Structures
1.
Amino acid sequence: MAHLHTLDEVDVKGKRVLLRVDLNLPMENGRVSDATRIERVLPTIQELSEKGGKVILLAHFGRPKGHRLEQDSLRQILPALEQYLKQTVVFADDCVGRPASMVVDALKDGEIALLENTRFHKEEEQNDAAFVAELAKNGDIFVNDAFSAAHRAHASTEGLAHVLPAFAGRSMQAELEALKQALLNPQRPVIAIVGGAKVSTKLDLLANLVGKTQYLVIAGGMANTFLSAQGVNVGKSLCEYDLAPTARDVLEKAKEANCQIILPIDVVVAKKFEAHTPCNVCSLDKISDDEMVLDVGPKSIAQVDAILRNCKTLVWNGPFGAFELPPFDQGTRLLAQSAAQLTIEGKLRSIAGGGDTVSALSQAGVAEKFSYVSTAGGAFLEWLEGRTLPGVAALEK
Ligand code: AMP
């Protein structure tokens, strides 16, 4: 990763700073139900404000696809933003045109404005040059603190970086530093855990990890496809039978790259995909036709745990089982707790990310104990796949 332009290089006093943040927050009954994303960008907003910059927040919310939809208005997150910032935030009804310029022109040094959802304009996702120019009229510099949106080349995530002096915000910097330590410059041995539902969504991820890690644990529903490809009867488990050749190919590539693949050696099976449904532990040769695998068994947990204890770096995406349905959260929970403990003891650097992974770790009560938990879903995965993220590339020196 080339070096990024950061806030250490710029004097923001008196400048209009267009700051791209991720405020795409989960809502329940009109209120923010999880403010993690606000917490992540607070340091950058506060630093810019304290240094006398006029902070102009740009963000998207939901998927209005170029339409002005009340349900996707950023106005609804204003109270939560002000509560966390302990400061008034002025709201502009549009991110371009007179509503935006009137608010921006009235800002004094250190004050903060939030502009309406950039995706109310279809030109945002098209990265339209004229729209980029309209956005740029309200800024002297551009700061991008939204790693989670950096895999999209949109006007406010990539376009602006080409027309204004552009810098990475503190949260973007921290995220990239953590990722660098995970795969580009890690302490070895490195173990990756890839779980979740389907192999088809994580093929590029597996291919990249095979070349970068010493151990690759394949878990969750996707492990069934690998087991089946090796001749195991997985009953009525979630399984992508058509991907058997692909699974065998991944196993072959791992062998060539000296990466040890770890698949479950025992499993928890049930007849229904339901919480608290009767279940039992069995070996791989005892799965009946009317049963489905919903979690890894105790021997598999012990096996992964023993490897974890010998590793220095962990990269984790995706749960070990159907963690939303107890007791099938056991594998994810116990291994997450073990990784957290090793991290606290200073023996392991643990990096996890992706939507379901964050909820699984939070459910296990360990999200705070990992070295770094990325709240970025798609961007985190694309980075692990070894892709260039346009929003990051535009900030490189
Ligand atoms: P992903 O979004 O690909 O990380 O997948 C997460 C989802 O995979 C969660 O909703 C889990 O319930 C699901 N999952 C994990 N293991 C299994 C399994 N053995 N059978 C069915 N679903 C699973």
2.
Amino acid sequence: MELYDVIIVGAGPAGLSASIYAKRAGLKALTLEKNPMSGGQVLNTYEVDNYPGLPGINGFDLGMKFREHADKLGCEFREADVISIRRLGDGEAAELQAASMGNQKTHGQKGYCLLTDQGELWTKTIVAASGATHAKLNVPGEEELTGMGVSYCATCDGAFFRGKTAAVVGGGDVAVEDAIFLARGCSKVYLIHRRDELRAAAVLKKEVMSLPNVEIIWDTVVERIEGEEQVESLSIKNVKTGKEEKLSVQGVFVAVGIIPQKEVFEKIVQCDERGYLIAGEDCATTAPGIFAAGDVRGKKLRQIVTAVADGANAITSILDYLVNQ
Ligand code: NDP
């Protein structure tokens, strides 16, 4: 059985940063990605304007730059879906020790077995960099009309609504960025937010409010998405007045937050009340040898810049862990 120093689960900014740091530190590292060139959410971001040194870079280009950097250093990638993770048993741990330390006795380092759709993989440590996925509105019509006017990615699907009317639901960075992006091609964009204040960064708020074809509908929730074969309208309700109305739109972009992809880790790593893996700035989780990086980690600021920082911190912690075990 081949034994890795670290297996990095996920190839978004956090995973790629960890790959680069691991390679440069001389660790035997493998990065797993579900799909070829997975890349994470950054690939679907139209414009990233807060990554230092690269103002206004397209998200796809930034993601590809991270990947090219890792490829240039010779980082090892494999396409594999992790099904489950288990701590190695005592016998297996001894085998692991023998394989890694030339039969030298060390103190209790056990390691993990990752069961993937491509077979088992053994590793001393893991970086959980599995990221997050889109949250849903969970209203009637959403599931039925997904791909028929309901979308979770404005940069992927926005072009279908050129010259048409679209709505964006949410008030965070993603919703506001989506509204700004869609306003470039759509005749009209409604930004529907459940409160009377946007959560998004001030610079984005200012920009979206300056756009003549964006109308912000405050204090309002979507109750139903309607249409036969395509989205035709939204039933919306003002949460303060209780007033309901129908809004005619051809597309609706749902941007109501993200859900951590923690399923394979949650049995061995403690999660917080929102489902994120509990880990501090050193990225160490409650499971020895497992480190969390990027959007799956419980933290205040989920940005590309903090994801890449996590990747670097996780590998630095792993170097300490491998020496001290
Ligand atoms: P956020 O959690 O920041 O915002 C989600 C928004 O959706 C909030 O305004 C929230 O309302 C609203 N919302 C949540 N649930 C519902 C619901 N059921 N119905 C209606 N509205 C709802 O998520 P984002 O996806 O915008 O961003 C995710 C993370 O990614 C953030 O940390 C963000 O900062 C980060 N990001 C970083 C970027 C970068 O690095 N350049 C770019 C884009 C995003 P309320 O405000 O009332 O809670």
3.
Amino acid sequence: MKRSSTDGDVYILAIESSCDETAAAVVKNGREVLSNIISSQIALHTLYGGVVPEIASRKHIEKINQVIEAALAEAKMTLEDMTAVAVTYGPGLVGALLVGVAEAKAIAYGAKKPLVGVHHIEGHVSANFIEHPDLEPPFVCLIVSGGHTHLVIVRDYGEFEIIGRTMDDAAGEAFDKVARAVGLGYPGGPKVDRAAKEGNPHAIEFPRARVGGSEYDFSFSGMKSAVLNYINQAQMKGEAISVPDLCASFQNAVVDVLVSRAVAAAKEFGYDKLAIAGGVASNSALREGMRKACEREGLKLYYPSPIYCTDNAAMIGAAAYYEYINGARAGWDLNAVPNLKLGER
Ligand code: KG4
Ligand code: ZN
């Protein structure tokens, strides 16, 4: 059956190109994903051990029309059926963001549809709305990805108060660097997660860094350095390291810090719902650690399926719906903002 937007529902064509996934999705009323197409460049960037910005931009430009066509086809809808077009305009790699922004503007202009600009982190948070119809603000959310580590209070849709953030590396970045150091390759998070399953999380005691200032801020560079020192020392002594033990112990240290601060924040600020989001939210130890702590503390835990944790456009469509019904419209001068702050317009 062909769907149409004349029935009062809001259909959003969402586009995401802030890093190394070219993605498009059709989302109905912010919570129902009709299609979610992701063209990943991971295999390409793996050759270089990380995302190469110029290559990312070039791949986006090559793939974006096909990805959008596929998203509309899978939703069995046309551009004319869309209520609005939404796009991530920051934060992210500028050249990568520009491809999505230019595309969304051209499409919206050509089809005479309203345009909505979406903050990438707001998208990650909103990924939780897709599979949890009961989840509504206010709640506390921990966003842990390759580029960001934020602890926020989601006061309302599109309304955030940042209560903690990383002072140096993002959690995902630390996973990626540790993975590279032990030769697991890029992206490291899923590989460390897998290797850790065979290891002892208490084999090596890595420091749980505390940051001066806010008790909800994070620091991962010390932990990463401790891992690198451990590897160097073992090499100097000619000792073999156990990659599973190292991965499990490092992961345990990261999870410990993330869980304890997120749970403490929810309790301290008086919220009974805690959500996690971003690529690292698919980490099995983090999910398990959060599940246990939330059960113990009487908090309700929410997390997206792995496909909605890492970058995707469905989460952008979910966030865009709430922006759209609140009246947010981007002008034809919408630009990419690589360092866009959460809560800024
Ligand atoms: O959200 P995302 O796709 O991109 C950003 O907005 O940064 O997150 C990617 C990050 C990478 O650092 C990747 O290593 C990490 O998420 N990641 C994981 C896992 N899956 C992805 N980290 C730990 N465990 C995982 N299972
Ligand atoms: Zn992301």
4.
Amino acid sequence: MKGMKVLKNSNVDKFSDHSLILRHYANDLDSQLLNTVNHVAEQSAFRNMQTPSGRFIRAAMTNCGKYGWISDKSGYRYDKTDPKTNKSWPEMPEVFKTLAKRAANDAGYNNFESNACLINRYTEKIGMSLHQDKDENDFTHPIVSVSLGVSIIFLFGGLTRKEKVMAKELKHGDVVVWGGPDRLRFHGVRPLKRGVHPLVGAARINLTLRRAS
Ligand code: SIN
Ligand code: FE2
């Protein structure tokens, strides 16, 4: 695994050997990203998916790109079709793809070509418990995660549930990149605190860009 390139910049919080937060990295694109999220959601609406055990995932989700991450009673997986519309997911917007590639590159992961973007929407008291992203075919590709709206506490653990968990505040425009030996680390977010962001309102939007297949 290569080392990371961007280490000296004061806007970089390198919180582990193969993981970093690019602070405010997406701020200049925020309106464009949010308009794009709305456009995606007009085609494939946010919904609360069900886990195999029948519980509902509290964050509302939708996807764009060739593959979308879905969960239902038969399991977690990627699918080219939105089960709600029976159509393909909305196309990967150029602005998402380019941002993810640039962020990955700045973090030392060259030529990251994302083909799946999971969009999560959190409102007050909604979080996500610790989990691993492991439904992708190839873990050599990093994960790029873009935060918009109300700040949240991101939790980053180890490769097992028992290891110590780090807590990092993610603000509007922050981009997290993790990969290499960190790729399968447990992570999640604490329940969203009450707050209002001028562009997003009382919510947080997270874009997770991955190469699914
Ligand atoms: C996720 O792991 O799917 C989302 C994490 C986040 O919302 O920052
Ligand atoms: Fe995740």
